[in-house]
Structures are given as C-alpha cells and as structure tokens.
C-alpha cells in the first residue's frame, strides 16, 4: 500500500473528479454492482450515502463499440469490459481451474453490465436444504421471509415473465411486464418434449418486453451477454444513477483496501485508494459490503487486525469458505432444417420439472432451451480466410441448423472450496490477490449425468445429430460466486446473521450471494437483489433506533 491517508479536505482530481471522503456519511456501501446499487438507492434521500467502487464508470455511449468487440473472434470476453492486468490478477488452485476474469466486470454496474439477465426465485426447499434434502445447512430465513422482497426486486429490475411454470414457488402478483414469446427453436423443442412428457415453460427475464421506467424494450441485438447497447436489459447503473439523483455520492476507481474498526466492534472507516496514489478514509455510521462472492471475503481477510488476526468478521473462521458456483450441463448438435439461432441473445423457455426431485444423492437442476447454438454468421465470416461465393456457401453450411440445451446444477457447500489470499502475488496496489480453491463433489457430477441423459433424449426425439455433450468431465462454472460469507443464526457456523449483519461487528452488513448457505440451481441475481432490499431496510431501521 502506498500514498498518504486523508479523511477529507483535499481534492483527488487526477482526472478532474473529486474522490475525497464524504463528511458525516450515514452509510458507506462498498461496491456498485446490483446489490450495492439497490442498497444505495433504497437509503438515499433519507440517509447520506456514499458508494465506493474499485472500477471505473463506463460511458454508455461506448456500448456499441463494446458490442463490436464482443462479436469479433479476436477479442476475448474480458476485453469487452477492460478486465485483466495486475488490477484483476488472481490465483486458481484446488481440484478445478477457476477462470475468474472470464466473467466479471470491475466497475460501476458490476456483473450486470455483461450478464444474461435471467431472474428466477429460489424454490422453497432451497431455503431448507438440510431438512428437506439432507444436504448443507438450512438458511436462517425461509421463502416466506423473502417473498415480498422478491416481488419488490422484480419491480425494481423490471422483469418480464408469466405465471405458466407449475414448478415455481408461489407468487403474490404478476411480473411487471408480459413474457417474451417463445422463440422459433422453442417450438421445435416443444414437440419433442410433449412426446417425452417433459414440461416447458417461459423464463423470467430482467429485460424489457415493453418500455419500462423510461428504458427501451428489447430490440434484438442478440449480444445480451456480454453487452446490451439498447439498455433494455437491466444493469445496476439504473439504480446508481437514481441513487445519485436522490443525493448519494458514488466514487469510482476507489478500491477499498481495508476496513478499520474500533474497540467496540464497530467498523469506523473504509480505507480506499484513488488514481492519484492517495489513500482516504471514508467514515460512516453503517457499512454495507457488496463486493461480490470473491472480493467480499478478500476485503475482510485484508482487514485483519490484532483483534481479528484471521480477518475482519471472521470469529467463526468461515470467511472465504464454502465457495460455490453452479455447474453447467449441456448437449447440442444439428438438424436437417433451419433452427434460426442467434436471433435472440437469451433463452425464452426452460424446464424446472426435475428440480424438486433433489435429495442427498441428486442435486436440484434446471434445463434451458438455447436460442444461440452454434456460431453466428459474423463469427464465422471473421474467422475464415475465404471470400465471395466460397464464403457465402460456407456461411450457409455452418449457420442456422444448430440446436442446443443447457442446464445449471447445484454444488454442495464444502469448506475446502474457498477464497483465500495469495501468498506471493499482489495486485497493482500491492495487496494479495484472491486465491480460489474450487472443489466440486460427486453429487453435482452425478446430477450432471442425469441432466445430460434428459438433454440427449430430447435432442434425439427432435431428430438432431448430437455432436457434443458437456458432461462431468467437461463441465465448467456459470460464474455465480456464492457462499463465502455464509448466513447462520449460530455465530460459530456463519459470518452474518439472518439480517445479513456480521456477527462480530454490529454496524457492518454484507449484501451479496456470498451469504447464501446453499446455492440451489437458480440464477442468483434476483435473490441477491431481494436480500439487498432487505438489508437496506434493516440498516435504515437500526440507524433510526440509534437516533
């Protein structure tokens, strides 16, 4: 660490932006992704809120240029959002390599800048996995506790969906927008699934099927992951900007290097760096760490002190442990007819029929019917060296007849799957980088085989020539970082309580999928958003009681 420390009064304006601390802040939020943005927006106006984010603000006018990067084979996915280098360095260890930088964005908006936008609620049994399935702990909250916050999160993000999924948990109101129509290839899958007695249903999307909150409806760019130029797909800049309009201060390029605390077990300041080489101390009455499932435990471990030698809020010893991700299961091939792929950059139909069959031996899993199988015409054209008629003929032969399915499988929580600090590698500020030890158990691998069996049976019923299967040996992560600061009523078994407030520090909350005790097999962002809104309400209530 380098640079002088200050707690206000000096400008930090290497690029003309004031990054000095905010005086008399009520709440300091670390991270401007979806959780941090929602907390800031919920509290702004009534509270003085400051948000610190390690990455930059991205100009929305640059999104078309980023889309062009995304469709060119010469660019890797991290290049689209300027990920990489010493700032984003990490180490991977354990049973499986974890490609952390492949799917994270460090900047205002966070991972929602490049996510696909699928927003499902966890099932009721996901909150009681230990009791109902014999795997992992029960959450200290249940579905009923989060149900009103799920509804609020759907309104905040803007979710298009229907109530046609007979396997989904109970709802209290329709989705804010109507669902997207099933795609052309969904209609092909539907015939095969009907023959096999497999149910298909629509998928809730955090993208606009019609104008919503001043944002455009989806216009079909097809590059949703990793960039939506139209703004139809939700990203956290929506709530960052709204929070700023309501009085919040958002400071970008301000990586928090440690949290300081006093003798009363209260966090007193977030120490952050700025591009000019200075360090500053942001003081506040309450702190919300919303830096994701990897950077959140890293920050707590970097904040070790004499009182907390193993890391801040780590009296249980569990900070960084139980790192989980969803495992991918998939299969695909070709048909002797057009399938109209890559017209839609997200999937519009899924199957949760087998989800609640989960037990100690089989993990919950869901199936997805893809609309983007095979190469896009642009990708094919830019990766070849032919021209004219030859190019045209090759594109016709390569594009449009692919078909594929995907699926997500739950990983059992395992203390040996964890995030720690690297021993001998540092970032651009001289701080140890995160070291990920990713361990996957037999339950998940066996469940992938089960998902593959169903996927192949559907493709064969469809008449497809099955050309690939992503089974246990070829599986990879869905880049859903969960579990590293788990929630528990017992301070010896978790890092935060049922309100996501740390057991060890009474003015520090964690808003992140890192608090998930188990992961389920549903994309986590809607649950992150619901928990963030719940955290904001708890912060506000406790601040009110103090005054």
UniProtKB/TrEMBL annotation:
Cofactor needs: FAD
Q: Which UniProt keywords apply?
A: FAD, Flavoprotein, Oxidoreductase
Keyword Flavoprotein carried by entry: yes
Q: Which family does it belong to?
A: Belongs to the GMC oxidoreductase family.
Biological source species: Halorubrum miltondacostae
Say yes or no: keyword Oxidoreductase present.
yes
List the taxonomic lineage: Archaea, Methanobacteriati, Methanobacteriota, Stenosarchaea group, Halobacteria
Q: Tell me the Pfam families matching this sequence.
A: GMC_oxred_C, GMC_oxred_N
All copies of domain Glucose-methanol-choline oxidoreductase N-terminal, residue ranges: 104-327
Q: Which InterPro entries match?
A: FAD/NAD-bd_sf (IPR036188), GMC_OxRdtase_N (IPR000172), GMC_OxRtase_C (IPR007867), P2Ox-like (IPR051473)
PANTHER family tied to this protein: PYRANOSE 2-OXIDASE
- Glucose-methanol-choline oxidoreductase C-terminal domain ranges (all copies): 413-532
A GO molecular-function descriptor: oxidoreductase activity
Name the UniProt record assigns to this protein: GMC family oxidoreductase
């Amino acid at each position: 660490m380098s640079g002088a420390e200050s707690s206000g009064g000096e400008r930090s304006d290497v690029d003309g932006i004031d990054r000095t601390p905010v005086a008399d802040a009520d709440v300091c939020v670390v991270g401007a992704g979806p959780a941090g943005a929602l907390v800031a927006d919920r509290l702004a106006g009534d509270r003085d809120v400051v948000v610190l984010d390690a990455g930059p603000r991205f100009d929305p006018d640059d999104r078309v240029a980023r889309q062009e990067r995304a469709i060119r084979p010469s660019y890797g996915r991290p290049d689209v959002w300027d990920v990489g280098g010493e700032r984003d360095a990490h180490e991977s260890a354990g049973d499986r390599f974890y490609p952390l930088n492949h799917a994270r964005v460090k900047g205002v908006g966070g991972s929602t800048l490049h996510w696909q936008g699928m927003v499902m609620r966890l099932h009721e049994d996901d909150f009681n996995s230990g009791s109902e399935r014999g795997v992992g702990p029960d959450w200290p909250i249940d579905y009923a506790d989060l149900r009103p916050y799920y509804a609020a999160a759907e309104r905040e993000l803007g979710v298009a969906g229907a109530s046609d999924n007979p396997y989904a948990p109970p709802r209290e109101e329709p989705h804010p927008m109507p669902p997207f129509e099933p795609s052309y290839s969904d209609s092909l899958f539907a015939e095969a699934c009907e023959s096999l007695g497999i149910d298909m249903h629509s998928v809730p999307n955090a993208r606009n099927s019609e104008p919503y909150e001043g944002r455009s409806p989806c216009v079909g760019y097809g590059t949703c992951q990793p960039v939506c130029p139209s703004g139809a797909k939700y990203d956290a800049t929506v709530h960052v900007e709204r929070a700023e309009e309501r009085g919040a201060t958002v400071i970008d390029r301000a990586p928090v290097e440690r949290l300081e605390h006093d003798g009363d077990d209260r966090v007193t300041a977030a120490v952050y760096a700025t591009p000019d080489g200075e360090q500053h101390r942001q003081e506040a009455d309450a702190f919300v760490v919303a830096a994701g499932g990897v950077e959140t435990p890293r920050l707590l471990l970097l904040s070790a002190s004499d009182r907390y030698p193993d890391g801040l809020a780590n009296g249980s010893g569990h900070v960084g442990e139980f790192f989980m991700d969803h495992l991918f299961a998939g299969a695909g091939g070709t048909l002797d007819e057009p399938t109209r792929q890559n017209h839609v950059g997200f999937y519009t139909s899924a199957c949760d029929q087998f989800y609640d069959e989960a037990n100690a031996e089989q993990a919950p899993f869901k199936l997805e019917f893809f609309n983007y199988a095979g190469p896009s015409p642009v990708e094919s054209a830019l990766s070849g060296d032919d021209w004219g008629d030859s190019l045209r003929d090759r594109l016709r032969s390569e594009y449009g007849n692919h078909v594929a399915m995907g699926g997500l499988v739950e990983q059992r929580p395992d203390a040996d799957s964890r995030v720690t600090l690297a021993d001998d590698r540092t970032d651009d500020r001289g701080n140890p980088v995160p070291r990920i030890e990713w361990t996957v158990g037999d339950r998940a691998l066996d469940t992938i085989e089960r998902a593959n069996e169903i996927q192949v049976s559907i493709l064969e019923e469809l008449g497809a020539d099955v050309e690939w299967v992503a089974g246990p040996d070829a599986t990879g992560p869905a880049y859903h970082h969960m579990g590293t600061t788990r929630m528990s009523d017992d301070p010896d078994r978790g890092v935060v309580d049922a309100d996501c407030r740390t057991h060890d520090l009474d003015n520090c909350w964690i808003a992140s999928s890192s608090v998930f005790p188990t992961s389920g097999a549903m994309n986590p962002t809607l649950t992150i958003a619901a928990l963030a809104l719940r955290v904001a309400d708890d912060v506000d209530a406790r601040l009110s009681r103090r005054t």
